[in-house]
Amino acid sequence: MNSQSSCCCGGGDRKDKKKNCAVCGKPLVYFTEERQLECRICHRIKTANAACEDGHFICDECHSGGGAEILDILLHSEEKDPIALFLQVCGMNEVHLHGPEHHRIVPCVLLTAYRNCGGELDLPAALREAWKRGQKMAGGSCGFLGVCGAAAGAGIFASIVCGATPLTPDKWAVPQRLTAECLNVITEIGGPRCCKRTGRLAIECAAEFSEREFGVAIPCSRPKCLYSLFNTECIRQKCPYFTVKEAQT
Predict the structure, then answer these.
(1) Rounded to two decimals, what is the model's pTM?
(2) Which of 35, 120, 163, 220 is most buried by a 10 A CB count?
């Protein structure tokens, strides 16, 4: 979904729509119990765990879009650094500050970097499969399901690389080990949500795991975060990517 064209009622700043409600830009309110609401984009009745202060609801599918442009960029990229790829994709209009699209982006940038670093992979097929699997991780899964979607996304990456299924004895535990490692790192730093922070932490864990488990070294850069000004839930100095200088500019 392109955030420049997602508003169906007028008003609201584009930056607000990137970080809050994509319809009006107002903050989201999370429910303790799911509700059945009409998506303001596709108008289908879907299960919702959040809506904005004015009651606007956009389903995960519409929030994330089809991913065609993202996957096309990754398919033709020669970038070996998955953090660089992640930040490039996160800068696209259809990617919000927070949202379930990150659950798809994490495994896709990891698979791209893995292939570009020498890993044997049918990248087009792998990207399609990763995006499809990532769609199964609902928005808000970190708080509601106890599994951060970024960590699950790293597990998707490992599962596709090693060919794990529920019935592969030697490979069954591989993606789960990576997901567990990601969750340990993510939870040690704490919350609340920040899809950029958890995405980068999961990618760094996955890159180390790739070299150790798959024999493919994936380099990760560590640029400072440029999203602090826009994230009202930023944990600031507790985040390894935060810089006071950038947050004050």
Answers:
(1) 0.79
(2) 220
